[in-house]
Amino acid sequence: MANTVVAAGELERLAREALARNGVPEVVAADVARILVLGDLFGIHTHGVQRVPEYLSRVRAAGIDPTAEIVVRRLAPGVTSTEGGNGLGPAVGMRTLRSTMECARETGVGVGFARGSNHFGAVMPYSFLAAEEGFASIICSNATTTMAPWGGREARVGNSPFAIGAPCPGGEPIILDVALSVVARAKIRAAANKGEQIPDSWATDGAGLPTTDPHAALEGFLQPIGGHKGYGLAVMVDMLAGVLSGASFLTNVSSWSTHPGAAQGLGHFFVLIDTRRLGDSEWLAARVTEFAEILRSTPPADPAQPVRVPGEAELALYRSRLDEGVSLDVADVEALRGLAAPR
Amino acid sequence: MANTVVAAGELERLAREALARNGVPEVVAADVARILVLGDLFGIHTHGVQRVPEYLSRVRAAGIDPTAEIVVRRLAPGVTSTEGGNGLGPAVGMRTLRSTMECARETGVGVGFARGSNHFGAVMPYSFLAAEEGFASIICSNATTTMAPWGGREARVGNSPFAIGAPCPGGEPIILDVALSVVARAKIRAAANKGEQIPDSWATDGAGLPTTDPHAALEGFLQPIGGHKGYGLAVMVDMLAGVLSGASFLTNVSSWSTHPGAAQGLGHFFVLIDTRRLGDSEWLAARVTEFAEILRSTPPADPAQPVRVPGEAELALYRSRLDEGVSLDVADVEALRGLAAPR
Predict the structure, then answer these.
(1) For strand A71-76 and strand A79-83, is the pairing parallel, antiparallel, or unpaired?
(2) Fewer beta carbons within 10 Å, N or C terminal of chain B?
(3) A226 contacts in B (CB within 8 Å)?
């Protein structure tokens, strides 16, 4: 497919207008556009503006209420709970991020729980915005169940995204944003299309047994990283983001592909730590910089592939795309322009 | 090796006396014994009372100061920082756990950083004690560097332990406690002894390349779970427990096997959330119980191996060992009795 380059500001305006012209209030559209465009800037296109038509189709199916009132309650000096009211996920996420930052500014640490939410985009944008304001973060969301529990043969765990980030005053933050499967399903589909075998660590067949056949794998389940360890991590993400938040969890989360008109009831979890309480910015910058240097200066196994720190590739792309624009599939940009056009 | 069974209370008394008779103040000895015996009760013997002689040998080498004053400062209403003064790790850990619980009782969430510490035992005991008091927890520690960064060929990252836990009022908590390597080094040593090959996902050789030869693996590095994902998780644990805490981090952590007389400068990180702020105990118990039931009732791939929830095996062992005593290597118990005997 052909690509086209769009300036970051123009992309955000387009996404905002596409949403606003289709029933999404301006303030909600602004939050959603911000998170999705950050996804594209980091190169996470699966969680970028290509989600706009998808989000709007769920709005049309009455599966998401873009006008939902998002209500934040403070449960304790450092704890907030956001009731998303089945609103657009990134709007619920941004509202929770802001209220958790408020708490963390007062008490040094804030925890924010969100429920009644939907797909909230990639996690890295939230960690990045938190780092820009000086907060270290642990952020995660639960998700539709697509993985089998370790040793099981039925999808009962979400491939939940999980991020940990820390700011580096005057420099680049370090941000890890991972899902807990060994690979994404798309990689198995690619192997199937090329007629190639896959490593037996990627997926199980429908009976829950490891397989090297990509077709059997597509009928089965993604394997979590480290077997029972990744299973455990995925489970505990849902404990934090689903159970403790008051959201739906595990198989109680409705699948938006099979039930586009039903509320998903997703939950999110934010811990933010105000790093200014720990030391001054010179102290932190010196430590994070030394930390990154120790890792980057490791002798590489392949001299052509230097060791990187988490988030390094995404943040480098972000800087270059802010200057040079975002390269996107023409069809995705055209879809956005169509939605954004006055009628 | 022959095993012997010791009652849990007797084991704790023995560990406490072994420490107290060898220069460790009573209050410190009590905390250390508590954490190590919990390790044994959970079946994590590598982090159980067999560590007592090891800890004491470091005390004799002046590598640990058992009489160190452990000082907790409150940096913000929800944030504490513990200066361990190179004291015994479990004493620093327990002090940080208690002060973080105090914060979390007041503000709903507390974060505790510790520095100037040493090996603090397994993480599960802290998560368990937190859960007993109604706190959900995220707890981790950095460690001596034993893993190569992803794509590197020099040990610059610790195989840091990481735990997430949540209480279930009236029932068993759910606690995940994992290190971030695919397997422990002991498993590779066992394969070498049996003359067996190992999966190429377990370790790299000294050049940083995946290997199926256990001997080459023992000269190389453990692989993190999920490749770059586990590497990233291990790195971010050190960011939280090492960099933000003011502790040593990465290769700045001194190795106690090569420099037993040097302070390690380890750091720990605790986030505790007071679940009583989120809902009443019936609400939480019902949700956590349903969560566990959904996972346990998953059809298993192997009918003889039902699906479990994180921590289930360790907590079952804990209950049975509280009743029936702890089965331990005779030599370990004899060593402890020797250290505990009056002179």
Answers:
(1) antiparallel
(2) C
(3) 178, 180, 182, 225-226, 230
Q: Rounded CA gap, A206 and A320, in Å? A: 43
How would you class A305 by CB atoms within 10 Å of its CB: exposed for 0-12, middle for 13-18, buried for 19 or more? exposed
Nearest CA in chain A to B105: A76
Type and span of the H or E element at B295: helix B281-296
Say which residue, A186 or A318, is predicted with more confidence. Answer: A318
Q: For chain A, positions 253-272, list CB contacts with chain B under 8 A.
A: 271
Q: Does B221 touch chain A (CB under 8 A)?
A: no
Cα separation, A214 vs A198, whole angstroms: 6
- Give B276's DSSP letter: G
Exposed/middle/buried for residue B91 (C-beta within 10 Å: 0-12, 13-18, 19+):
buried
Q: What type of residue sits at position A272?
A: L
Q: What are the beta bridge partners of residue A138?
A: A164, A271
Instruction: Tell me the shortest Cα–Cα distance from B261 to chain A, in angstroms.
Output: 24
Q: Measure the CA–CA gap between A27 and A325, rounded to whole angstroms.
A: 24
Given a cut of 80, whether residue A343 has pLDDT beyond it is no
Q: Is residue A343 packed enough to be buried (19+ CB in 10 Å), middle (13-18) or exposed (0-12)?
A: exposed
Q: Does B314 touch chain A (CB under 8 A)?
A: no
pLDDT in tens, B157-197: 999 999 999 999 999 999 999 999 998 888 899 999 999 99
CA separation for the pair A179, A158 (Å, rounded): 9
B301 contacts on A by Cβ (under 8 Å): 148, 151-153, 204, 207-209
Query: Nearest CA of chain A to the CA of B94: how many Å?
Result: 20
Is the Cβ of A3 closer than 8 Å to some Cβ of chain B? no
Per-residue tokens: B52: 């007592």
pLDDT at residue A1 greater than cutoff 70 = no
Mean pLDDT, residues A130-137: 98
Contact A298 B153 (CB under 8 A): yes
Q: Contact A144/A137 with Cβ under 8 angstroms?
A: no
Q: What's the half-sphere exposure (Cβ side, CA atoms, 13 Å) at A191?
A: 20
Chain B residues 151-180 within an 8 A CB cutoff of chain A = 151-154, 156-157, 164-166, 174, 176, 178, 180
pLDDT tens digits along A193-230 = 999 999 998 999 999 899 999 999 999 999 999 999 99
State the average pLDDT over residues A12-16. 98
Whether A239 contacts B174, CB under 8 Å: yes
Summarize pLDDT for B13-51 with one digit per residue, the tens.
999 999 999 999 999 999 999 999 999 999 999 999 999
Answer yes or no: is pLDDT of B322 > 90: yes
Six token digits for residue B27: 């209050």
